[in-house]
Structures are given as C-alpha cells and as structure tokens.
Amino acid sequence: PGRLPAVPGVEVSAATRAAGAGLDLGGAFYDVWPTARDRWAFALGDAAGSGPEAAALSALVRFSLRSLTVDDGDPVEVLRRLNTSMLTASTEELGAERFCTLLLGILAPGERVEVRLSSAGHPPPLLRRRDGSVELVPVGGTVLGVLEEPEIGSAAVALGAGDGLVVFTDGAVQARAGDRPFGLEGVRAAVAAAPDDARGTAAALASAWGRIRQIQAAA
After folding, report:
1. How high is the pLDDT of residue 108?
2. Are strands 126-128 and 134-136 parallel, antiparallel or unpaired?
3. Runs of H (alpha helix) within 69-197
4. Residue 144's pLDDT is what?
5. E-strand stretches of the chain
6. How far is residue 176's CA from residue 215's CA, in Å, rounded to a whole number?
7. Cα-flanking dihedrals φ and ψ of residue 182, to 5°?
C-alpha cells in the first residue's frame, strides 16, 4: 500500500528493500486493513517467481484476503479458503508457479492487543517485549497453492504497552555477507538493537539487511 492506515492504539510501520536495481515487480507484499467489529488484519507474504506473474499472484492473494476477512473469521480458515482460490485460479493468468508463503494476523485493539496468527510456510515473527527481550513466535505451516489440504500453523500473542511484533519475509533471513548468512539470528539481533518504536524497528531491520547486501556486493 502507498500508506499504512492508522490502527487505534497500535503503531504500525513497514520498510522494504529491493533485492536488485530496477526490480519494480515481484512477489513480496504486505498489507494492513480493517475488518469487522473494530478488528484489524495484516498480512505479509511472498509469491513464487518474479515479474508480472508474481505480481498478479500477490495481487490475487491481497484482495482475496480482504474479502475473506470481512466478517473477522478464524485466520486459519481464511488461509484454507485462500488456498482453494489459488488452486482454482487460471494458470494462464498466474503462470505455472502459483504458490506463496503467507503470514496473516488479526488484531483486537484494547488495553492489551490480542493478535491471532495463521501461517503458511512463512518465517516466524519475533516478539519484542518492553524490557528488550526478543522471543520467537513459532507458527509453522506449509506453502499455499500446492496441496488441497495444506498445513496451516497458528499462534496467539498478547501485546502490552511497549511490546512489538516484528514480521518479515525470507529475503531478510536469506541475505548473505559472502559465505555468512544473515539468518534468523541476524534478524533477531537487529530487532534487539533497534529503537523501541515501530518506525525505528522497521528502519533498523532494513538498514541491517542493506549493510549485508553492501558487504556481499563488495566481497
């Protein structure tokens, strides 16, 4: 999206870095939108391939998610229904490779923000508590668009004042500096060292990934 919406009681921010120069179309995407009963949804995914076909698949996923979450349904069931839509989509429109990883969250703002998560093979999010500790939120699942009955992972977290939930694509995890992978531990370290606000966290993670890319290019 061109601009993220304002979610009551929650600070939301995002940052992106292209893997190479001149890549305007790709499969990575994110979105934040309102659902029913003052709930909010967010999604982060990575569609197979690159170019127009990957962009078409990511657009299908994004707009399908908005439709499937309009009644604030179970996020696990939402991904199952999305998988069915992907399997029945036109091969001519989306290409032969039409699978994607996806993380979906449903936010219930309040004194504590309740977050229901479902995942299909996407990197697990990180939960940073107000005291600076960072923990992994295991969700799991298998990719969408391949099997009729994919494994959909689920988890639930509660965020208090000053807590943050950090989600990212596998591009951050797979970045390498020469022979050294950034990896999940690199992401965790960047999150632990980041400022404690959403904008600062997003910028710090993008900056750390960018430094890895620069080191790789110079190697």
Report:
1. 94
2. antiparallel
3. 75-88, 91-94, 170-174, 183-193
4. 95
5. 26-34, 40-50, 100-108, 113-120, 126-128, 134-136, 153-159, 164-166, 176-177, 180-181
6. 8
7. -65, -50
HSE-CB of 82 using CA atoms within 13 angstroms: 36
For residue 176, how many other CB atoms are within 10 A of its CB? 15
Residue 23: the pLDDT is: 45
pLDDT at 73: 82
Is 169 in contact with 100 (CB distance < 8 Å)?
no
Q: Which helix (H) or strand (E) holds 59?
A: helix 51-68
Residue 33 CB partners (closer than 8 Å, separation 6+): 5, 40, 41, 42, 66, 69
Give me the pLDDT at residue 183, please.
85
Task: Look at the block and give the residue holding tokens 């969700």.
Answer: 139
CA-only gyration radius of the chain, Å = 17
Locate 79 and state its tokens: 């991904």
In the three-class reduction of DSSP (H, G, I as helix; E, B as strand; rest coil), residue 211 is classed as helix
Contact 29, 45 (CB under 8 A): yes
Longest Cα separation, the chain:
52
Q: What gap in Å lies between CA 78 and CA 8, rounded to an integer?
A: 24
84 by DSSP, 3-state: which? helix
List per-block mean pLDDT (blocks of 10 residues) for the chain, which spans 219 residues. Answer: 89 80 64 92 89 84 94 92 87 70 95 96 95 95 94 97 93 74 87 93 84 49
